[in-house]
Amino acid sequence: MGIFGFGNGKTLYYPGCLTKGVLKEQFENYKGIFNRLGIDFVLLSDNEVCCGLPVLNAGYRKDVKKLAKKNYDLFKKQGISKIITNCPSCYHTFSEIYPKLISEWDIEVEHATVTILNALKKRRIQFCGEGGERELVNYHDPCHLGRYSGIYEEPREVIELLGGKIIEAYFNRENAYCCGGGGGVRANFPEIAKAIAKKKTGYIPEQVGKIISPCGLCYANIKSATERSVEFSTFVLGKLRGLGR
Predict the structure, then answer these.
(1) CA torsion 116→178→28→38, rounded to 10°?
(2) Which of 3, 68, 75, 216 has the most crowded Cβ, counting Cβ within 10 A?
(3) Residue 156 clears pLDDT 80, i.e. is over it
(4) What is the mean pLDDT of residues 37-54?
(5) Is the pLDDT of residue 131 over 90?
(6) Rounded to whole angstroms, what are the CA distances from 93 to 54, 76, 86, 161, 190?
(7) Cα separation values, 220 from 75, 99, 112, 193, 195, Å
C-alpha cells in the first residue's frame, strides 16, 4: 500500500462506516483488490469520521455542514486530491452533496467499481473461458449508486470481465427494486426490511447462484432473506485469485 499521485496529491481509500466498522472482511477485500491491481492508496484510519449522510437524512443540516467542513479540512491537511469509496452512500455524499455545502470543494471522487474496471482494462485482465463456464449471477443496483449516481454499467462490466454471466432481475437499473434496508428501515424496522428483501429476491431467477451488490447495506439486508447474497468485493477478489492475480 503506497501513495498514488494525482497532481501533487494522494488518493484516499474511504471505506465508510459500515464497511470499516461492521463488514471488516469486505474492508480487507477491497484493500486486497487494490493491491493486486496496482491501485495505490492511503488510509486515514482513526482520523476518519462519517461522511454525514445519516445526519443529513435525520434533518440536522447545520451539523452536516460542520461535518463536511471538518472532513474537507482533514482531507486537505493530509494532501488528499482524490477519494475512492466502495460505499454508494458515501460516493453520493462526496460527489453530489459536499460541493453544495463547501464552495471550495475540489476533491475528485470515484466509486470503487469504476476504479476496479479501469484497472482491469489497463492491465487487460479478463476471463478467458478456457476450462470453465461462466458463472450465472445477478447484479443488484443499489439506490445510491444507480438512481442517485447513474452508475449502472461499470460494475456489470467488471462482473462480466471476471467470468460472471449476469441474469437480470425483472426490475433492474433505474427500475431496480430496493433492498429494503435503507433510510433507517433496517435499523428501526428489521422485520419490514427483511420482508422487502424477501420479496425482492422473488424477482430473481432461481438458476442464479449469487446476488451481487457493491453496497454493504444492500448485501447485508438481502442476506437476511437468502444466502445467495454476495458483496461485490468477495466476488471480485475470488475471481482474481482464480486467475492467479
Answers:
(1) 0
(2) 216
(3) yes
(4) 92
(5) no
(6) 10, 17, 12, 29, 25
(7) 29, 30, 18, 11, 13
Q: Cβ distance 102 to 69 under 8 Å?
A: yes
Report the distance separating Cα 94 and Cα 218, nearest Å.
20
d(CA 7, CA 70): 23
What's the CA dihedral at 73, 77, 81, 86 to 10 degrees? -70
Closest alpha carbon to 113 in 140, 134, 131: 140
- CATH architecture of structural domain 10-116: 3-Layer(aba) Sandwich (3.40)
The per-type count for the chain, helices as H runs and strands as E runs, is 12, 7
Phi, then psi, of 104 in degrees rounded to 5 = -90, 5
Amino acid symbol at 94: F
Distance CA 240, CA 2 (A): 21
Q: Domain residues of the chain, as ranges? A: 10-116, 126-242
Q: Per the structure block, which three cell numbers stand in for 27?
A: 474492508
79, pLDDT greater than 90: yes
Q: Quick check: helix, strand or coil at residue 10?
A: strand
Q: Cα–Cα–Cα angle for 205, 112, 141, nearest 5°?
A: 25
The residues, any chain, with a CB within 8 Å of residue 242's CB and separated by 6 or more, are 163
pTM over 0.85: yes
100, three cell numbers: 453544495
All cell numbers assigned to 65: 455542514
Please, is 74 exposed, middle or buried when counting C-beta atoms within 10 Å of its C-beta (0-12, 13-18, 19+)? middle
Which residue, among 86, 77, 6, 25, has the nearest Cα to 51 in the 3D structure? 86
